[in-house]
Every structure is written in structure tokens, then in C-alpha cells.
Design a protein that fits this description.
This protein is α/β, with parallel strands linked by helices. The chain has one domain: Rossmann fold (3-Layer(aba) Sandwich), CATH 3.40.50. It contains nine helices and seven strands; from the N terminus they run βαβαβαβαβααβαααβ. A seven-stranded parallel β-sheet has the order 3-2-1-4-5-6-7, sandwiched between helices. The longest helix has 29 residues. The radius of gyration is 17 Å and the shape is globular.
Amino acid sequence: MKNALVTGGSGGIGAAICRRLAADGCHVYIHAHRGLQAAQTLADAICADGGGAEVLAFDVTDPTAAAAVLAPLVEHQPIQILVNNAGIHDDAVFPGMRAEQWHRVIDVSVNGFFNVTQPLLMPMIRSRWGRIVNISSIAALTGNAGQVNYAAAKGALNSATKSLAREVASRGITVNAVAPGIIDTPMSESAFDAQEIARLVPMKRAGSPAEVADLIGFLASTQAAYITGQIISINGGMI
């Protein structure tokens, strides 16, 4: 059984990813920072269905806290599947954006990627097999007004994906990014109504978290062994 870690695993997309990886036979570590109760409810549900899951609590922006939790986990057995899903929005038009809005969004997506991935990488390399999937956004590919900070953070994650993929390709490790468009989550419900979705998306609907999770499940599988360094968008034809 492979161990998998999903950061931000208590949210809509994160929870779907956890369920998919557990259904595929992984023992899933569900990371949460503020959503601990939701994460524990999800872990209990996965275990009740016969899967394996447990909750990890730490702030991905705190390298000391991340290392304190992660280092003991990989002392004897690597985490071979990592989904860097943690990310936040804090939208504002750029002239009115506060410095803390810029830094916090960058901190979670970019520094969080480093703080979680780096401690797990050498054990993964020694195992000669691994799958790293970074959750990006269509905003990093097209830009989006009011999201300069978010687009910058996810764009940096895309570049990190491509570079790390080159570093570890010879070790049996793939590194890819998934860039969702409009996905049916509480966050998107507050931002897009049905008419706007129909205008923006050629398929005339939002995607589901399960559809994103299915893509990630494939990228985390043995069947995706020759796919690495790619930014794969799932957006209903928006671009």
C-alpha cells in the first residue's frame, strides 16, 4: 500500500482527491490547518468504507511545523504520492491590493509547496517511485482581473513543476500540475452564477470535484509513468 498526502484535504476538491486515492488503495494522510473537523469527518468516512486515512494538522507556511510533522512519517516508509492542493484566494484589484494579501497568497501556494515537498523528496527518491501533483489554476494560464496575486502564485507553481520534473525524472518520479477552471465548490458558487458559467464555459456547466480527482488519480497511477512536467487544465473548453 502506498502512502499519499493531500494538503488542503478538507476542502471540496481536496476531499474528492482523498476519496479517490483511498479508493485506489492508498493510505491517505489528509492535511488540514483550519478545517480539522471536516478532515476528521472525511477520514472517518474513508475508514468506514474500508479505506485507510488519518489527519495531519500543520500550517504549510511554517517550515518548522511542517518538518516536525512530516519527518517522522517518512523515517521508515516514504510518502510516494503527494498532492499539493493547499491554496487560498484573497482577491483585489492590484492598485488596492494590500501587501499582506500579496504575501499570504504567495506564501501558501509557493512556500507551502517547498515546505511540504522538500522534506518528502529524498525518501521518495530512495524508493525510486513517486508522483507529485500540484494544483494550479486556469488563472495562471490566462490571467484574471483581481487575482494578480493568485495568478502569480499558481504561475510560480507551474514553473516549479516543470523544473522539479526534470530533476527527478530519472528516479521514477513524475511531477505534474493540474489547472482547474470553474469547479462546483462553495468557493465558485459564491463567485459565478449559472448564467455566467454558461457564458464562460463551452460545456455550459461547472466541473465537479470528482472529475478533478479522477484526473489526479490517473496522474498518480502507474499508467501515467511517462507523463511528467505537464500543466494539464481541466476547464470544460474555456481555453
